Amino acid sequence: MTAKNNKLAKAGEYKPIDLLAVAAAREVVDGDIVFAGTGLPMLAIMLAQKVSAPNAVCIYEAGSIDGRPIDLPTSVGDARCAHQASMAAGLTEAFYGQLHCGYVDLAFLGGAEIDKYGNVNTTVVGDYLSPEKRFTGSGGNPDINALARRTVFIMVQEKRRFREHVDYITSPGWRLPKWPGGEFVHKREVYGKFFRGGVEAVITNMGVFRFDEEGIMYLDTVHPGFTPQQVKDNCSFDLNISRVSGETKPPTYYELELLYKEVDPEGIFLP
Amino acid sequence: MNNLFDKRPRLARSNKVVSLSEAIDEIRNGDVLMMGSFVDTRRPMAAAYEIVRQQKHNLILLAQCSLAEDIMVGAGCAIAWRGCYTGIATFGLSPATLRKTEAGKFFPDEIGHLDIIYGALAAMVGSPFVATRATLGSDVLNDQLDRNRILIDKAGNKAMIPKKKFELIEDPFYNQGLVKLLPAMPADAAIIHTQMAGEKGTARISGSLAFDHYFVHAARTVIVTTEQIVPEEYLRRDPNRNQIPCTAVDMVVEIPWGGHPSQVMGYYDTDIPFIRDYVLSARTDEGFERWVGEWILDVKSRDQYLDKLGASRLEGLRAADPQGYRSRS
């Protein structure tokens, strides 16, 4: 291992996916209990554990608790997840034994569409009963998003994906329908004493978004090479860009080296 | 008929070993069926192929519509599904499920993982319903987007599907706010694939247990396919390591490589090119038909399947100690 080069990489020296992984990894606080899904979330937690959060614990929904994978898994049930795990069991032990009962601090999730309240759709485009396009369905998305203290969504930034209303609310955000009536209220009102938090950040290939006191999305940092207006132009709703705190910090050379040489040397998710 | 939640008395036979075709013969058209494990690991793939070969139809699938299920959906064996996932992790969306759903030929009904787990647990313990916070605020609770009626219509045994999907009430005991009453999720049959099983049905799993250790108790017929039948006596030397008790199991089928192309920890790794080829092929009707012909219908025996894969390919997948998978690097 060469000396840690903590200088920031310049434009052109990293790919959008590298910045996504690095920005997501930076959301992990050392000691967090993290629930991660397949893909970029795996890169993020494994990178975070190597860079800044060695004591973060990762739980994969298929039932491995605090595994320390030495090879990148292709799914959350992959035997790679369970390498050096404290326990390998099943979904019950992960979802109820860890998540529902309140151990989980942070979760990484993905989504196809999101609205300004952080409601996420991973189920269908169009009418649910005769969809134009079907996606993966919820997976663990709504359960994890509802019951972790903080969640971070990693998504592709496109106008058609950042919408006023999503076609199907798979995963509840900050303001959500209260059934049976379906009127939109704050999450706190629906979850009552079970309320623990919600969407902390949305990270896309253009910026990092957070939510204000009302539960409405705003742009926090913009990735190098983009302007806040460009990000706003890639949202269907009227994105608040008045609170931009600056530019997203690019990856360091050390982070890039870890990503490509240690986390995903086989190129499972990285190009 | 007994109470829905009473376990069907399993025959306390000394030997439950049968052939794969005999076992799958017990699956009826219209059954509510749960295929074991998760996404692309330890899937009962040989059993799924046999279901296709025996041309089962109108099956209602539970839990996920991933690698094993997608093949059955593509082949027209399943009509509906209640669960939460129609993808194959790194390999993308479940291609046949998407095609059939978008064409209106297959009927998904959404619930969440917590619902599946808790529904299975409720069926296991014989409780008609349980309470949870799962899916509050999501469209799972939107009654305009509910296919419970379709599931009842399609089920062979209509008693297997609850009259409705959920009921919302205020917590009457601890005053914690809104809770969802979730009906139990019994199944007509469960098929799981394990690393080892004994002739009386005791089974041992390595790696993720997924839903299997609960779902076997929620199903009225339980088939265990296994990499290796070992003497019951061997498994019983260390009973703490067994997750499936003999009392839950009706039939045991030995099928080496029976989880291919999924991963079976300790035995072999995921066959990545095979799954990629399937996912690409199954995007169209023609591609799927070609694939199912090549790998299922035109393959006359398990031996022929393994010969077609070839010894060097299988050797390249064989798991290594101590990790239990095949390191790609």
Structure described in brief:
With 271 residues, chain A is α/β, with parallel strands linked by helices. Chain A has 7 helices and 17 strands.
* End-to-end CA span of chain A: 22 Å
CATH structural architecture of chain B: 3-Layer(aba) Sandwich
One letter per element, helices H and strands E, the order of chain A comes to HEHEEEHEEEEEHEEEEHEEEHEH
How big is the Rg of chain A? 18 Å
Which characteristics define this entry?
heterodimer, A: 271 residues, alpha/beta, Glutaconate Coenzyme A-transferase, 2 domains, ten-stranded mixed beta sheet, three-stranded mixed beta sheet, B: 329 residues, eight-stranded mixed beta sheet, three-stranded antiparallel beta sheet, 11 strands, globular
Describe the overall structure.
The complex is a heterodimer of chains A (271) and B (329). Chain A is of the alpha/beta class and 271 residues long. Chain A is built from seven helices and 17 strands. In chain A, the strands form four sheets. A ten-stranded mixed β-sheet of chain A has the order 4-3-2-1-5-10-14-15-16-17, with helices on both faces. A three-stranded mixed β-sheet of chain A has the order 7-6-11, with no helix packed on it. Chain A starts with 15 loop residues before the first helix and ends in an 8-residue tail after the last helix. The model of chain A has no long low-confidence stretch (mean pLDDT 95). Chain B has a single domain, classed as Glutaconate Coenzyme A-transferase. Helices cover 30% and strands 19% of the residues of chain B. In chain B, the strands form two sheets. In chain B, strands 1, 2, 3, 4, 8, 9, 10 and 11 form an eight-stranded mixed β-sheet that branches. In chain B, helix 8 links the parallel strand 10 and strand 11. The longest helix of chain B is centred in the middle third of the chain and has 13 residues. The radius of gyration of chain B is 20 Å and the shape is globular.
